[in-house]
Structures are given as C-alpha cells and as structure tokens.
Amino acid sequence: MTLWMWLLLSCVLAYAWKLLGYLVPASVLRDPRMSRIAGTMTIGLLASLTIVNTVASGQALALDARLGALAAAGIALVFRAPFLVVVIAGAGAAAGLRLLGWS
Amino acid sequence: MKLLQSPAVRVGLSISIATGLYGVSFGALSVTSGLDFWQTMALSLLLFSGGSQFAFIGVVAGGGSGVAAMGAATLLGMRNGIYGMQINALLQPRGWLRFAAAHVTIDESTATSTGQTDPLEQKRGFWTAGLGIFVLWNLFTAVGALAGAALGDPKQWGLDGAAVAAFLGLLWPRLKGREPVAIAVVCALATVLAVPFVPAGVPILVAAVVAAAIGWFSHGRSDEGLEPDVDPYAEHPHPRPSGDAT
User: Fold this and answer.
1) Taking Cα atoms as reference points, which of B82, B81, B69, B80 lies closest to residue B205?
2) HEC string of chain A?
3) Using the beta-carbon criterion (under 8 Å), do A38 and B79 form an inter-chain contact?
4) If you count residue pairs, one on A and one on B, with CB atoms under 8 Å apart, how many are there?
5) How far is B214 from chain A (nearest CA, A)?
6) Domain-wise residue ranges, chain B
7) Which of A64, B57, B156, B168 is the most core-located residue (most Cβ within 10 A)?
C-alpha cells in the first residue's frame, strides 16, 4: 500500500510541475537560471540512474553482466540505433554474457 | 485529408509512433522491477513523463524506498515546468484546455511545437504529438506490462541490462558538447562514491544535488539537457528557431 502512496504522490507532483509552468508569469521564463538547473539536473539524474543500474547491487558495487549491457547500448547509440533497438541490445548483451557464465 | 498535409501534424504523428513504441520497454521493465500491472499503468496514465517513470521504477528495482523513487521522479520532472512556460507563451491555451495541455507537456510535444515557426503549426504540432504519444505510450505500456509478467526470471532475459540501456538511451541525446559530458561524468562519479555509504536510491538524489549546484554556479547554455529523447526533426530537417538544424 505504501508504494501506491508514493507512486500517486509522484503523479501529483509531476502534474504540479507541468501546471506550474502555465501559471507563473512570463517574466520568470526570462530568468535563465531555473531553466539551466532543470537541464543540468536532467543530465545528472540520468547519468546517475545509468551508473546505479550498472554497478550498484544494493549498497555494494558489483561488476557483472550489466557492464556488457552498458557497452552494447553505447555501441548501438554510436550507430544511431532507435531507442528500442538500444534497449534490446542491452538486454541481449546481459543475457548473452550470463549464458557464457558471467553473472 | 487536409490536416495530414500539415508538416507539424505529420511530424507529430511520426514522433508519436516512435515514442509510443518504447512504452513496451517501460511496461516490461516496470513489472519486472516489482510494480504490478495497475501501478505500471498508473505511472503511464497519470505521471506521463518517460524519464520520470523510468526513474521511479529504476530506484525501486535497485532496492530503493518509495520516497527515494518519488524524489528522483519529481526532480527529473522539473524540466516539464520549463516546457510548460514555453508552451504557455507560444499557444496561450485558455480555460480547461490549459489543464489538458499541462498533462501532455513533455519533451517530445514541446520539441515538435517549438520546431515550427507558424503559430497554427505550433499548436497542431503540440496537440498531435501530446495526444498521440499519450494514447500510444499507454497502449504499449500495457502490452509491455503483460509481456513482462509472462517472462519469468527477468535476469535470464537480461532485463536489468535493458534498464541500463534505457537510461543511457535517455541520457545520450543530451550529451551534445563537452560540458554536458562533464556534468554526466561528475554526477556518475558522485553516485558511485555515495553507493556504499547511503541507502539504495539516495545516491541518485546526491547526484541531483551536485547537478543542481553545477547549474546554479556555472554559466552555460540555459537550454542544456532540455533535448527530447527522440528528436522530432531528426528525419524531417526543418528550420528551427534555435538554428541548430541542418
């Protein structure tokens, strides 16, 4: 039940951000700092989520098949593959490496 | 039909299909992260912002608490407020339309709209992409959630690797130039250093604080990191106000 609560609260807050943009006076848009922080935070959070999902195992660091997924995704992105192909490349690399015995 | 000759409508429809399709990966990863079918659908229907949805399930999958998942999803949603200001200035929606417009204000609908110069085309682009992605994203989330639930052991299928790839895929289009790469590296490093010392999920919030501090104290492009996951104009070169298209 608590996960539901945080989930629904996340939905309310996400809508609040969106709506806030429509309600604040246009002069706020001319202040570049808020826009800049929204952008740097997007980059920072996505980089953090990428690395956490690659090397974190709870509170421990682990080097496992997920590293292969990161490399495969990177190669797919260099070749301008569409998003879904990138995701499948990541899954395939992790599954393949596990078949070869690397956990 | 005359509407289909509108360039903004055509771009809006193609971006809807491209973005909607990867709802499959969100649905599948969400149920294998431990959310049930309806929790997964609630995120796509009500939260409706790809990056934030992936962030929520990414924190839960890593063993993080609900409040940490909410924190990551909410901080990642801040940019939608910036988009809201831009769309409000361009389209000036009135009455209940404003509340509907807010819900479909995301990377792709904003990029489709701001990529047009004619006000009518800006309006058509925003609504076509916003509503089109909303419908297809939810449809494909459901397909992915049902498929993911039938898969069995998610590790055997490499779905943890799929999550890694999804986040890198969301980050990638935002790494244009040296500065965003430097921000990404610093935040990734801060995350890795924090992992052993704080509960799961919290390292992501540490990285958010570092990123916000960089944004506050440095003076770079004010639209850095605000690129859409899928560029609506990648295959339809069109003169953009920012002038960065070919």
Assistant:
1) B69
2) CHHHHHHHHHHHHHHHHHHHHHHCCHHHHHCHHHHHHHHHHHHHHHHHHHHHHHHEECCEECCCHHHHHHHHHHHHHHCCCCHHHHHHHHHHHHHHHHHCCCC
3) yes
4) 343
5) 7
6) 7-162
7) B168
- Reported as a pLDDT band with limits 50, 70 and 90, residue B237 is low
- Give residue limits of the domains in chain A: 63-103
ipTM value: 0.93
Q: Are B232 and B12 in contact (CB under 8 A)?
A: yes
Which residues, in sequence order, are CB contacts of A85 under 8 Å at separation 6+? A76
Write out residues 24-43 of B within 8 Å (CB-CB) of A: 24-25, 35, 39, 42-43
Distance from CA of A74 to the nearest CA of B (A): 7
Q: In Å, how far is A12's CA from the nearest CA of chain B?
A: 7
Q: Report pLDDT for A1.
A: 63
B6 vs B19: CA distance, rounded Å: 20
Closest Cβ opposite residue A44 in set B62, B165, B207: B207
CB-based contact B222 A35, cutoff 8 Å: yes
Cβ proximity of B131 and B15 under 8 Å: no
pLDDT in tens, B213-225: 999 998 777 787 8
Burial of B193 (0-12, 13-18, 19+ CB in 10 A): exposed
Scanning B82-121 for CB atoms below 8 A from A yields: 82-89, 93, 98-99, 101-103, 105
Span B95-141, pLDDT tens digits: 999 999 999 999 999 999 988 889 999 999 999 999 999 999 999 99
Mean pLDDT of B54-65: 94
